[in-house]
Specification:
116 residues; alpha+beta; Aspartate Aminotransferase, domain 1; 6-stranded antiparallel beta sheet; 4 helices; 6 strands
């Protein structure tokens, strides 16, 4: 997937919005105002940073060399996924959906209901 495909997939998830709050080169994707993905637009490697539960984050890092801790966030809960041949489109969509679902699960009930 390229950056535009990543962006389009994320925006296809219900309630997702995008913004550039940090700078003009980091696309931030949110659901109900809560961040679930970051896409750096100035990096030569296509990559996306996603939220992940701690145990799964560690397991993914052990299995895939293209998945590394996102040091600019709590390293236990965020992974940067570098898009390379070991990361299939199916796996990437699953990782994005997992990040989205984690954020949605943490929303207040009223906001979760708005997404249904």
């Amino acid at each position: 997937m390229n950056i535009e495909e990543l962006r389009e997939y994320c925006l296809s998830l219900k309630g997702t919005t995008e913004c550039f709050p940090f700078d003009d080169v980091t696309l931030v994707l949110k659901v109900q105002g809560k961040m679930f993905a970051l896409i750096p637009l100035d990096n030569p490697e296509t990559q996306i940073t996603l939220k992940c539960d701690p145990e799964r984050a560690i397991a993914l890092r052990e299995e895939f060399s293209a998945i590394v801790p996102a040091w600019h966030f709590n390293k236990k809960y965020w992974n940067t996924v570098i898009i390379d041949p070991t990361i299939t489109r199916t796996l990437l969509c699953e990782l994005i959906q997992h990040s989205y679902d984690l954020v949605v699960a943490g929303l207040p009930k009223k906001l979760r209901e708005e997404l249904n």
